[in-house]
Each structure stands twice: as structure tokens, then as C-alpha cells.
Amino acid sequence: xxxxxxxxxxxxxxxxxxxxxxxxxxxxxxxxxxxxxxxxxxxxxxxxxxxxxxxxxxxxxxxxxxxxxxxxxxxxxxxxxxxxxxxxxxxxxxxxxxxxxxxxxxxxxxxxxxxxxxxxxxxxxxxxxxxxxxxxxxxxxxxxxxxxxxxxxxxxxxxxxx
Length: 162
Prior knowledge:
Blueprint: E1 2-3, E2 27-31, H1 36-48, E3 54-58, H2 62-70, E4 84-87, E5 95-98, H3 99-109, H4 115-122, H5 125-143
Parallel strand pairs: 1-5, 2-3
Antiparallel strand pairs: 2-4, 4-5
């Protein structure tokens, strides 16, 4: 199920974590590996994800290719202008979140809610996504772009998928 494209009303979801904070299956964040803003956000999430619930893959990699082939309605990696959050990757409960729904769900799942996330959660989806699309459109101009995909620090390598 893709949240934000196919079933926009199905965005209230409960956490699927055991009492010792181990996920039933991994969740994957697909991000633009050449975008400074995206890479800095991933670094922030790595620091805040105390229970290591998230794995990461760049939109330019093999994992993203597999996910985008599974969900052709997302488009190709060349025209996808959104973070993609795949909760419970490769499980029967797999769900895909895009744009602001992805951001809010990621922060909720790792139990890190700061002021701007809380503020965004009160806005209607169309307003959140309007803001998201504006930032996505100008992210390279405002924050910069790497010549090639950003590589994580060695201590984080097990958290990244190809």
C-alpha cells in the first residue's frame, strides 16, 4: 500500500515493534544520495534512531531500483522528487509513505518529535505537501548537491543497503 498516492486516507498506522524495541521487519528510507539536505537529514536520523529501526538506501542504488519496480506508480528514480519510506520492507504489512507523510511517519517511528515535526503534523496534508514540494524543487539550489553519492561514516555502514 502506498500512503499519499493510492490510499491517502490510510495514514493512521500503529507501531509494529516488540516490547524490547526490535522491529518485526526492517523499514527503509530511500533518499537522494547527491542532495546535501537529504544526506544531512539521514545523518540526523542515524543519530536519533536509538533503537536502529531504520535502514537507508539512496535513490541511485539497487534497493531503490527494486522498490521502484515493485511500485511503478512512484515513477522512476530520475523523476521521483520525494523521500520514500517503506515500513516493514518485504513483509506482508509493507507500506510506502511519500513526501510529508514519509517524514512524519519516520520521526514518529523512531520516537523523535521535535518542534517543527509537531507543527507540521497539525497542518492539513495538502499544505504539508505543498511545503514539501517547494523545498524538494529548490533543494539543490538552497542546500547544494554532491558530485557523487554521499558515503556514510564507517560506523554506520551496516545501516545502509546497496
